[in-house]
Amino acid sequence: MSIWTSLDPASATVDPGAAATVTLRLRNTTDLVEEYRVAVAGVPAVWAEVEPRTLRLYPGTTGTAEITFRPPRTPDATAGGHPFAVEVVPTEQPDDKTVVEGHLTVTPFTEVRAELLPHTVRGRFRGKPKFAVDNLGNTRLTASLTGKDNSGQLGFELHPANVQVEPGRAAWVQGRVKPGSIAWFGQRESHPYTVNVMRSGVEPVEVGGVFVQRAVMPRWLLGFLGVLVAASFAFTIAWFTFRPDFGSKARDGGMVPVGNPLTLPDGQKPAKAPAPDQEPRKAPPAPPAGAGGNEPEGGSEGQERQLGGPGHRLLYLSKASPWPDPPEPGEQPATWPFPVKSPGFEQVGDEWKCTWSSVRYTLCGMKDSYNPESTTTFDFWVRSNGDPNASISVIFDWNFDGDKEVLQRREVFKAFKLQPNQEWQKYTEEVGLEFAEGEDFRDINGGKLSVGFWVRSGESPIEVRSNVPLDQDQISAMRIPYDPR
Fold first, then answer.
1. Does residue 310 contact residue 303 with C-beta atoms inside 8 Å?
2. Per-residue DSSP letter, 127
3. Tell me, what's the pLDDT at 256?
């Protein structure tokens, strides 16, 4: 051996976010001047800094190098023991390299964040908020959830009420809030409440929300019913109090004709009056305008569907986002393949988590005013790769406040069955909305719209056509219920 090595200490303990240092000692046992390169291997290598990285030693001399470990205070620095190795390689005699082993222990820490989506839920009989429990520590989190309100007028159901969350992951809890009594008439009532995330031996984490209870019938309906009852009562009294006396001034015997007689042209006889039980004949209807009485083309079948559907503000599906301006003439249309397991969506049980992916079309920095008289509509051109079982759904994700980490509303439309002929087919909102969850539509202040496609069935990717200029056919576009400011 041309080198003698030792590690002091051989085992070290470090807190995430802090630092721990070990010293490597080297001795050149050869009769040559040698230069040694020092490197760290193992899981802790990503947190290690070696100073210096190379040592030049004369024969019989000793040198040292300090290795400092700085694990971050994130879930990536998993709590527990992590073995590592320090490799020392001589430059002149690389075959005489040596390895010294050590052990680094990372201490545990816990950090929990709870979120409520949405913060305010509305309903007449119940509300259905969702809670996200994020484990930002480096150990497994075990916690229980309880809900309460200060007035004692709400009931809570949380499923599941106990969660176990791995480091760096999140758990979703479905909540149900029920008022103590039903409000038949009157204004809306706000009931603030809190949900506590409790762990053993530490203070609970609280997240607050509001349940807005709507009246079953609005106040104006109560006044209308009162007016209707009063009018019915007055009509009843009038009906039985006032009895009009109807009499006939007709005289017995035949009626004497009066006035001037009607003179007819020669050869004509007066027409007979129809019998009392016989309806008079009606003249046949006049033929409609046009040659031969035929209906003109285009008649009254209804207006032609506009681009993007019957919605409001028009957006074109460009190469990367729903864009307000169409592509320039002469640009080439783009074809985006969406894999069978789209990386843009992750299913956890019956819930959907939003992750950000390059296969989604996203428009950021929107500042639009909500138009309640419109809905989300679209014309998307899609095709399969010959798979007879292929179907696809479109998903609209909305953020109203500009915080890209928060998904505030999601609309998922029903699956669209594709033909296996590999031709472009138009997918529209007429398939129907499968479900919408989260907050109600409202004005967008620096928020964004993200459009993604979810392959519902089949074993092959599905393609979506985008970035089509106006001088071509099969333009993918959509309309949203907003007006630009």
1. no
2. B
3. 39
